[in-house]
Amino acid sequence: MDTHLSQVWFELTDLQVAHGAGAVITTVDGTDYLDLTSGIGVVNTGHCHPRVVEAIREQAGRFIHAQVNCYRHDLLEPLAQRLAEISPPGIEQFFFANSGAEATEAAVKLAKQATGRPNVVVFQGSFHGRTHLTMAMTTSKTVFRAGHAPLPSGVFVAPFPVTFLTAEDEDVAIDRCLREFDLLLATQTAPSETAAVMIEPVLGEGGYVPAPRRFLHGLAERCAQHGILFVADEVQTGFGRTGRMFATDHHDLTPDVVVLAKGIASGFPMSAVGASADLMNRWPVGSHGGTYGGNPMACAAALATLDIMTETEFLPRAAEVGARFRTGLDEIATRFRAIGENRNLGAMLASEIVDDEGCPDPARTAAIMRHLLVEEHVVVMSCGPYGSTLRWIPPLVISDEQIDHALASLDRALIATA
Length: 418
Ligand SMILES: Cc1ncc(COP(=O)(O)O)c(C=O)c1O
What we know:
The protein has helices at 38-41, 50-60, 76-86, 100-115, 132-136, 163-166, 170-187, 213-226, 277-280, 296-311, 314-335, 362-374, 400-416, and strands at residues 17-21, 24-27, 32-35, 93-97, 119-123, 155-158, 194-199, 202-203, 209-210, 229-233, 257-260, 271-275, 339-345, 348-353, 378-379, 381-383, 389-392.
């Protein structure tokens, strides 16, 4: 044993980092790396944005912990109000927690209480967290579930149109998935027993697959028809990641419940569940809560994050980042057959790495990531069921030069690993 840390954490790199600024992280030996993970889609405003740092510093001198059940601190209401202003229409009130899993699970608790129904429908390839309930709602990879049975019941899995894997035309895939959703309600969980449908507007861990607009609207219509709550898990897609504040904004969707985390506070642990006052009022007082939810330092970080995103040209720039990256990836794909497909919604980008037969190639993906890390000092993650999807999640403050450097590095990595 050479460590007192649990080995349960999967390690993407062995980097020991000392500090970060913008899109760059610096190791303890002083080497800079371009961070295209954003700490798994969290530091959308970049590492240590000066306004976020200052807000946390100032708040630390006033109140570090003000427990919500005991008393209310002065940033709670302003933050809830700001979130209501930027959220889809009808989302009026917020419950605060600490992690994405806590919030997705809280959203299910709210839906059960508000509807009096027991079940939830999720989608093949989804990732909603690692607690027992959210593990049962997660089907992006078996490793997240294996060995943990029995998982909670009341979770039903419907298909998600992933055309890259099924080689279907998109319209055909959408029609098939909506038909199978209807079949699920007819055969496994009756509408009268279904509290909520939870969906990631862009499948995250499952492979960075944007949900087609017609699919999302088809689901929302069915939910409205049956009194099922439509819950958008915007944990990874929120706060500018897709070039809009939320991914649902691209589709004029009005979810009944939204789940927020990751980018909300630029790295300070915080998450939120948003819904109408009517729904929130059906959540019995005291039936949910938590020691740290609504922590004042997290609220300060979130308010500073929202200031950055609303007072500057942050969102248009996020869209530009996604477009520039995508153009570069598409140009590279014309020269390398190993890139089977590029996809994106804003700056949530994916490249499918395939072998000569066009099948997922996890070994090549790992070799490319290794080359990028060791030779180019560019940190990149993979995702997707076979670990063969390179996912590009740059901090949204990344410069054009840094994007071009990342693309040139990918070019060299594809040559080196051929
Ligand atoms: C869409 C989505 N929902 C929920 C979660 C769980 O968030 P956390 O890891 O903060 O519990 C994640 C984490 O990656 C996610 O991407």
